[in-house]
Amino acid sequence: MNDITLWREDTPGTKFYTHLNNAGASLMPTPVIDAVKNQIDLEASMGGYEAAAYRAPYTKAFYTETAKLFGAQSKNIAFTANATDAYNRALSAIDFKPGDVILTSSNDYVSNFVAFLSMHKRLGIQIKIVANLPSGEIDLDALKSDIEKYKPVLFSLTHIPTNSGLIQPVEEAGKICKEYDLIYLVDGCQSAGQLQVDFKKIHCDFYSATFRKFLRGPRGAGFLYVSDHILDKGRHPLYMDMRGADWMEEGSFTLHDDAIRFEDWERSYALMFGALRAIQYASKVTMPVIEQRCRMLADNLRSGLNQLDGIEVMDRGSNLGAIVTAHSKVLSPAQLKEALKEAKINCSFGNKLNALIDFKEKGIDWIVRFAPHYYNTEEEIQKPIEVIEALLLTL
Fold first, then answer.
1. Domains of the chain with bracketed CATH
2. If residue 94 lies in a helix (H) or strand (E), which one and from where to where?
């Protein structure tokens, strides 16, 4: 399916706003919206347990369809409440000891760093940051050197940072981690639904993601990929319930074989079925079409912003995705926010609390972030450029 008119007809929100905040939460297509509403209505009419049993084939389809989109098997997929929930469940499956080292990048997500620092405070783990290349992405030679030097227990890498269009070399890093038999956790919060992602090519042990961003699903839904390697070793989250294991004897439990050991028994079936429709919609559009169009729109936006005096594009990296960030020394965030809001352009603003190390290196304390998606038009991409240009002319 490659039809911008149909995509926009399927997306009610496009009638009201120029939505360039897809890195925050995308506009959901009608099949996703209907799936959530229909399940709520069904639960209201027949009861929650009964509605879940009635729609059991949808539950099975969620795992099958999600796995298919990412080159995995259904047994490797766990449904979670969000990307951070998925990420922390993966973290809790690792038996950290005092002095253990976590390797990460300076561009890992803020919530990941908060989790690391909490673990440092409580467990005594150490955090080491792999050096970047001058272009912005991690230095793979430095990764090898740090693995040999620190003997880490885990390498965590955010595929696409929330504060930049940078795309990290996750496949190349995965090959290195596999070579050293190092647990590899990829935060795919911004890449799932934006890029063609194949878990086998990445060689990751875990991959955490959300549905609300580029997958165009509902808020409150995410997933975790868990590799066969992790499952076969019997790893499991610290806090499980009866969804993840059976209480067979008073003093022990028996793990379930697949990634559902990383789930809770209670979940929102309405959100799961909305997530299923989001996966099916992305599969119908196809990921090659989505990735190509996202990159094209983001490149056009960067090009237009780069031609304006008074605003600077802040994205670094030799490989850039559909997150476009900019900063101005002559415009305040409040001025930009008001002008863009008046033009009904949805975007977001970030400060140094979102990416402390990255902002320090760039010498800035705020950014405006635009994130186009395949359902955006080329004309919509020009709107923020025109708004900012007009605002600069008033100075």
1. 4-26+287-393 (3.90.1150.10), 30-284 (3.40.640.10)
2. none
Neighbours of 85 (CB within 10 A): 18
Give the DSSP per-residue string, 169-184.
-HHHHHHHHHHTT-EE
pTM, whole model, 2 decimals?
0.96
Kindly state the tokens that stand for 237. Answer: 């989250």
Which of 170, 148, 156, 94 lies closest to 127 in space, CA to CA?
156
**pLDDT tens column, 152-204:** 999 999 999 998 899 999 999 999 999 999 999 999 999 999 999 999 999 99
Could you tell me where the beta strands, DSSP code E, fall in the chain?
A: 18-19, 77-80, 101-105, 126-130, 154-158, 183-187, 206-210, 222-226, 245-249, 252-255, 312-313, 324-327, 345-346, 348-351, 366-370
* Look-up of token digits 């230095």: 139
Q: How far apart are CA 213 and CA 209, in angstroms?
A: 9
For the chain, the straight-line distance linking the first and the last C-alpha, in angstroms and rounded, comes to: 45
**Reduced to 3 states, what is the DSSP secondary structure of residue 244?**
coil
